[in-house]
Specification:
The complex is a heterotrimer of chains A (216), B (220) and C (243).
Chain A: H1 7-42, H2 47-61, H3 65-78, H4 85-111, H5 114-122, H6 127-157, H7 169-180, H8 183-215
Helix pairs in contact in A: 1-2, 1-4, 1-7, 1-8, 2-4, 3-4, 4-6, 5-6, 6-8, 7-8
Chain B: H1 8-12, H2 14-48, H3 51-65, H4 69-79, H5 89-115, H6 118-126, H7 131-161, H8 173-184, H9 187-217
Helix pairs in contact in B: 2-3, 2-5, 2-8, 3-5, 4-5, 5-7, 6-7, 7-9, 8-9
Chain C: E1 4-13, E2 16-26, E3 31-35, H1 42-49, E4 57-62, E5 65-66, H2 74-80, E6 81-84, H3 96-106, H4 112-125, H5 141-153, E7 159-163, H6 171-186, E8 190-194, H7 198-204, E9 207-212, E10 215-221, H8 222-227, H9 232-242
Parallel strand pairs in C: 3-8, 3-9, 6-7, 7-8
Antiparallel strand pairs in C: 1-2, 1-4, 4-5, 9-10
Helix pairs in contact in C: 3-4, 3-5, 4-5, 5-6
Classes of the chains: A mainly alpha (216), B mainly alpha (220), C alpha/beta (243).
């Protein structure tokens, strides 16, 4: 049944953004937890831990996100877990985001001068205390702009979840196209909605970065 | 666990994989060349152009960088025919990937140009070099060196991103996976094999860029 | 027993031998100035004392603790050995008070009110009481270095190490930092200091140690050693820094 594109369709598209945002939030939380572990592994004193971190990062950054989505979508059912697109997407995006966030945060940890660790150690602070009171508070400040920048990547990449049937903005666009047969208009609106989400974040990230440079 | 893994059927379809690999490599190569060309032009305009050309390039860069590749692809492949502009899947894929990468490389190359201190340009001009000569002898190599790592990463990301073209049925490596999947019903195995194939490609690309880096910069 | 005892310490960075069988002991209450060219190993020697550098062979005993043994509790040792660095190394994200009270609070679990009183007390010693609520980047280099000294003093150390603490300062700020050291000397603090300030070494140090090629090349009472060096190497060195 083909009908014309109406403002209701546009409202549906706008409403579908909530699933894009929800998936982004899940991916960011899951990826953030993985990312903390990755960043700590990559900066560990013990070399095998660093190798483990490096293998993870290069493995994930060397494969398409699309492949992770399919592997989880089809793979989890093999081990007896009933897979909803939600679960597959949450797992795939956490793994994917974890590698990228881990690398970003590793860079921030390593940007803090070694002398700051030494100053902490010389006062009798344990390694964990040095991290908690000296290194992380400084690293967080420089981590915010690139983390916000990655958030933009994440929002855009949630569009790939459409391919395993996860109904978010892009999938809703496909469905709308199928009923209205106005692909150009529909995808233009979809693109504009993504832009509306991403562009302010891009600007914000850039402003934060600029402020950081001025502060130094 | 009762499932037994079965890779034989997957590998039996190696011809599909090989065909797909060919298109993936072709898309990557075309995307890189075209994307870098667009990026070079874009960066030159961003840095040296007049206010309006600058604004237009910056609009292009922001529009591409703040929307998903898959939506851009759908817009070109499914949307443009509505305006009477029709491409086959492979052409649409090449076009979209080039325009997409062009926006990212514009930003990277611009950063490279801006990383060269003004004093270097002044030193070049003071020696009587022309604008082009300053660019060619003073700016180009140091700028390339600064941005090389970011550029190399972006190109590897592009190669991985080509997998998205399978969603408009371009016959790339990832699409080959879905064909094999529909014939063998070995869902997990197919995608695992393809994931490993992409990983191998990514490693080869990285190795290539590392060697190129060595050739370009080792003696400078 | 000496407070610090280094015996035949060897330290290598890759193929480079930085400390070559260096031996030195420091008594309770003594002030030892360590001098020498850059690359002579003097800073490395100092950093070995609180275990910031691991050594390849030899033995280091500080305040009854063998520093370079696998089981050594370096944290416990470092609470008793303060160190001040050339580049201050204040924590830029913490106020002066928090810089000083961080270790007393998280290592020694001191209550907040006591910690503030402690911060005021040590800041008084370095003459910067009024800066307790300032931030590091609001202070001059000399003031930052004095806060760094106060931060170490807050842990009530038995021994203080100073690693070229005036080298990064503008000449006009050196005096205020050295004055703090002289005050600490009067109070009987045991100090080891790597320094280029020969006048200061002569005036304040009990003993001067000249490092050369990773060894303790010559040492003796400050005024005599600086006035009448025994080795040609020290003589050359003194000639080059005094002119």
């Amino acid at each position: 049944m083909i009908r014309d594109l109406s403002y209701i369709d546009v409202l549906y598209l706008i409403a579908a953004m909530r699933w894009t945002l929800a998936l982004t939030a899940i991916a960011f939380l899951g990826g953030g937890l993985v990312g903390i572990v990755v960043a700590l592994l990559r900066t560990a004193n013990w070399a095998p831990l660093r190798w483990l971190g490096a293998i993870y990062v290069h493995g994930v950054q060397g494969t398409p996100l699309l492949a992770w989505l399919f592997v989880f979508f089809f793979g989890l059912s093999i081990v007896g877990i009933t897979v909803s697109p939600w679960l597959a997407a949450a797992a795939a995006y956490s793994i994917y985001a974890g590698a990228f966030l881990g690398e970003i945060w590793r860079g921030c940890l390593q940007a803090i001068a070694r002398t700051q660790w030494e100053a902490g150690a010389s006062l009798g602070l344990s390694t964990a205390q040095q991290l908690r009171y000296v290194i992380v508070p400084q690293a967080v400040r420089i981590a915010i702009p690139p983390t916000v920048g990655f958030l933009v990547q994440l929002i855009k990449n949630t569009s790939l979840a459409a391919v395993i049937g996860f109904v978010e903005l892009t999938r809703e666009g496909q469905l709308t196209t199928a009923t209205t047969f106005r692909p150009f208009t529909v995808y233009l609106i979809v693109a504009a909605l993504y832009f509306a989400l991403c562009f302010p974040l891009t600007r914000w990230s850039r402003r934060l970065e600029g402020r950081l440079h001025v502060a130094r | 666990m009762t499932y037994s893994f079965q890779f034989r059927d997957v590998f039996a379809a190696w011809e599909f994989l090989l065909d797909g690999l060919t298109l993936t490599l072709l898309l990557s190569a075309v995307g890189m060349v075209a994307g870098l060309t667009i990026g070079a032009a874009g960066a030159a305009i961003r840095v040296y152009g007049g206010p309006w050309p600058r604004r237009i390039v910056s609009g292009y860069v922001e529009a591409i960088r703040n929307t998903p590749l898959i939506v851009q692809l759908f817009l070109v492949f499914f949307g443009l025919p509505g305006l009477g502009i029709k491409f086959d899947a492979e052409t649409a894929a090449m076009l979209t990937l080039s325009v997409n990468l062009g926006a990212y490389t514009t930003e990277i190359l611009r950063a490279g140009l801006e990383a060269i201190p003004k004093s270097q340009l002044e030193a070049g001009r003071s020696l009587g070099l022309s604008g082009w000569q300053v660019f060619r002898h003073v700016v180009f190599f140091p700028a390339l060196k600064v941005i090389y790592p970011a550029l190399a990463s972006q190109l590897v990301l592009l190669m991985l991103a080509t997998s998205v073209v399978s969603q408009i049925s371009a016959q790339d490596l990832f699409h080959a996976a879905s064909i094999i999947q529909s014939r063998t019903f070995r869902d997990f195995e197919v995608y695992a094999v393809v994931a490993v194939a992409y990983l191998a490609l990514a490693l080869i690309f990285r190795a290539f860029f590392a060697v190129l880096h060595h050739l370009l910069f080792a003696r400078r | 027993m000496s407070l610090v005892e280094l015996s035949n310490v060897v330290k290598r960075f890759g193929a480079l031998t930085v400390l070559d069988e260096a031996s030195l002991s420091v008594e309770q209450g003594e002030i030892v100035a360590i001098i020498g060219r850059s690359g002579s190993g003097k800073s490395t020697l100092l950093r070995c004392v609180n275990g910031l550098e691991a050594i390849q062979s030899g033995r280091i005993v500080v305040d009854g603790t063998v520093v370079n043994e696998p089981g050594t509790d370096l944290r416990a040792l470092r609470q008793r050995v303060g160190i001040v660095f050339q580049s201050f190394n204040l924590f830029p994200h913490l106020s002066v008070e928090r810089n000083i009270t961080l270790a007393p609070r998280v290592v020694k679990h001191m209550p907040a009110s006591d910690a503030r009183a402690l911060a005021l007390a040590v800041l008084r010693k370095v003459g910067l009481e009024e800066k307790i609520d300032a931030w590091p980047d609001q202070l001059s280099g000399g003031q930052q270095q004095r806060v760094a000294i106060a931060r170490s003093l807050a842990m009530s150390p038995h021994l203080m190490l100073f690693d070229e603490i005036t080298s990064a300062l503008d000449p006009e700020l050196v005096g205020e930092v050295l004055k703090v050291l002289e005050e600490m000397a009067r109070e009987g603090m045991t100090m080891m200091l790597v320094t280029h300030e020969m006048g200061f070494a002569r005036r304040v140090a009990h003993r001067v140690v000249f490092m050369h090629k990773g060894k303790v090349w010559e040492q003796g009472r400050a005024a005599e050693t600086l006035a009448k060096p025994n080795t040609p190497e020290l003589e050359t060195f003194l000639a080059s820094v005094l002119h």
